[in-house]
């Protein structure tokens, strides 16, 4: 294979061809694309395989379309909090314009631009279903049944991501439920929508579709929303959703669901009936590892793949699992971070350069996946967090203190939004005097989280944070209020 990139489509030959590469990447979402980019930059020949659209879940059914739906919702909410502006934005959102904008950001579900990017870096693209047929060997079955066998000299990287996990309810397939894919790509606004779940997808989609005109009911099995964050995050988001008109029922599970004459009827474990036009299940994720031939290389199909800090699958010296499939942090930005680590590790090993073990915070160690994973939930108010919650830190054996601040004490917050309502917490390791976690809830706090990520990842001493002076008057002054509360 020449170094000039190619996109391989149908092959009329009935006999499978065989091609060697330094690296084979299975899955061409953001994670796979970044692995390919790093290995190509290191001079390694690289093939990348994709069964759907180049660009993956994030580009077409997750990050990009969901944030395109949510941006006008958040912008309108912010404008309504500014005196002199709120009266100009009192009407409803133009749902058709919002959906059209969403379609633009998904490139209308066409991947030409991302194909071009991969070809420009010199990666060879194979379209079809890739399955292992033995160690270092992947057979690609194309859309017309043609096959290509790819042999990796150095590494195969599994970057196939995750899929929505549906509950085991009889007849659920006949109901045609929404998953995150349908929720972010629906061409119309449902009149009534049931959202099952209380996590990120559930809260973001409840926020978006309610603002676009749906009557939304959220059914949560647990005690509240956003259970993996500090409890006040879910409480403030639930309060705002309820004020917007969303009905939230906690401690509620679905016993059965049917579609009667086009209407979804969900019966709860308490015997209540909830009717809607559509029902979204946002109840977890499963790895896309069930149909890629892992059994041929001694790995259990359908499982999350265990890896070391260089993303090498446990017990192998050539197989990498990057992104959602390793279950370390199911977030696009963390998957891309892992891809940079994996690409560097693959290149080093291919070139015979030993990795320094252990190598915390080194070029070949995905240390941040243990200590400093940031996330933003684009609800109104936004919720953003990095690192450990107070409870997680205690359970991990740290001697910690939680320092809480109300944003009402921050001058910049009041200027940002009239009646700004929000809360922040930092979790301090009292032995090391460093931050283990930070959580913000309030309008615009997504832009604050990187400062917290730097503090947590960099293990910046609390004393030194006094010299990181926040600009006045900005919401970032919350850092000064943190330090004053900690000292006081």
Task: Explain what you see.
The protein is an alpha/beta fold. The chain has three domains: 7-55 and 111-163 and 287-368, FAD/NAD(P)-binding domain, CATH 3.50.50.60; 172-284, FAD/NAD(P)-binding domain; 381-487, 2-Layer Sandwich (Enolase-like, domain 1). The protein contains 16 helices and 22 strands. It has helices at residues 30-41, 56-61, 63-79, 95-105, 112-121, 172-175, 180-185, 200-211, 231-244, 332-350, 368-371, 390-395, 411-416, 449-457, 462-465, 478-487, and strands at residues 7-8, 17-26, 46-50, 124-127, 129-134, 137-141, 147-158, 162-164, 192-196, 215-219, 247-249, 254-260, 263-268, 273-276, 278-281, 285-287, 319-321, 374-377, 382-387, 400-406, 423-429, 434-442. The strands form five sheets. Strands 1, 2, 3, 4, 5, 6, 7 and 17 form an eight-stranded mixed sheet that branches. Helix 1 packs parallel to helix 10 (332-350), helix 3 (63-79) runs antiparallel to helix 4 and helix 3 packs across helix 8 (200-211). It is globular, with a radius of gyration of 24 Å. The relative contact order is 0.12. Keywords: FAD, Flavoprotein, NAD, Nucleotide-binding. NAD(+) binds at residues 197-204, 284. Its cofactor is FAD. FAD binds at residues 67, 130, 160-162, 324. InterPro entries: Class-I_Pyr_Nuc-Dis_Oxidored (IPR050151), FAD/NAD-bd_sf (IPR036188), FAD/NAD-binding_dom (IPR023753), FAD/NAD-linked_Rdtase_dimer_sf (IPR016156), Pyr_nuc-diS_OxRdtase (IPR001100), Pyr_nucl-diS_OxRdtase_dimer (IPR004099).
């Amino acid at each position: 294979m020449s170094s000039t990139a190619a996109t391989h489509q149908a092959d009329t030959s009935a006999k499978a061809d065989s091609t060697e590469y330094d690296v084979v990447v299975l899955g061409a979402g953001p994670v796979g694309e970044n692995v390919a980019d790093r290995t190509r930059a290191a001079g390694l020949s690289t093939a990348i395989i994709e069964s759907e659209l180049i660009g993956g879940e994030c580009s077409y059914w997750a990050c990009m379309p969901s944030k395109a739906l949510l941006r006008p919702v958040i912008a309108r909410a912010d404008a309504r909090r500014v005196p002199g502006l709120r009266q100009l934005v009192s009407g409803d959102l133009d749902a058709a314009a919002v959906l059209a904008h969403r379609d633009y950001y998904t490139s209308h579900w066409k991947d030409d631009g991302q194909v071009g990017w991969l070809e420009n870096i010199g990666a060879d693209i194979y379209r079809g279903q890739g399955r292992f047929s033995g160690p270092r060997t992947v057979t690609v079955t194309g859309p017309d049944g043609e096959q290509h066998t790819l042999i990796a000299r150095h590494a195969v990287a599994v970057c196939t991501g995750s899929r929505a996990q549906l509950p085991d309810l009889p007849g659920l397939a006949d109901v045609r439920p929404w998953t995150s894919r349908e929720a972010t790509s629906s061409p119309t606004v449902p009149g009534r929508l049931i959202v099952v779940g209380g996590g990120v997808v559930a809260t973001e989609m409840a926020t978006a579709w309610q603002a676009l005109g749906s009557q939304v009911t959220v059914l949560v099995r647990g005690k509240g929303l956003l259970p993996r964050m500090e409890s006040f995050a879910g409480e403030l988001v639930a309060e705002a959703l309820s004020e917007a008109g969303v009905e939230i029922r906690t401690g509620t599970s679905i016993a059965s669901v049917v579609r009667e004459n086009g209407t979804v009827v969900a019966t709860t474990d308490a015997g209540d009936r909830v009717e809607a036009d559509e029902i979204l299940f946002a109840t977890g994720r499963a790895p896309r590892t069930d149909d890629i031939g892992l059994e041929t290389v001694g790995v259990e199909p359908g499982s999350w793949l265990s890896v070391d800090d260089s993303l090498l699958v446990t017990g192998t010296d050539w197989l990498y699992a990057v992104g959602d499939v390793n279950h370390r942090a199911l977030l696009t930005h963390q998957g891309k971070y892992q891809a940079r680590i994996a690409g560097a590790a693959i290149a080093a090993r291919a070139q015979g350069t030993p990795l320094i073990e252990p190598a915390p915070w080194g070029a070949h160690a995905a240390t941040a996946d243990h200590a400093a994973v940031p996330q933003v939930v684009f609800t109104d108010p936004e919720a953003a967090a990095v690192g450990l919650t107070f409870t997680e830190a205690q359970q991990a054996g740290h001697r910690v203190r939680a320092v809480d601040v109300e944003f009402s004490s921050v001058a910049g917050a009041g200027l940002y939004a009239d009646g700004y309502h929000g809360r922040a917490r930092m979790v301090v390791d009292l032995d090391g005097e460093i931050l283990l976690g930070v959580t913000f809830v309030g309008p615009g706090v997504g832009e604050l989280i990187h400062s917290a990520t730097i503090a947590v990842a960099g293990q910046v001493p609390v004393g030194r944070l006094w010299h990181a002076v926040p600009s006045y008057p900005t919401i970032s002054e919350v850092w000064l209020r943190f330090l004053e509360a900690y000292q006081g």
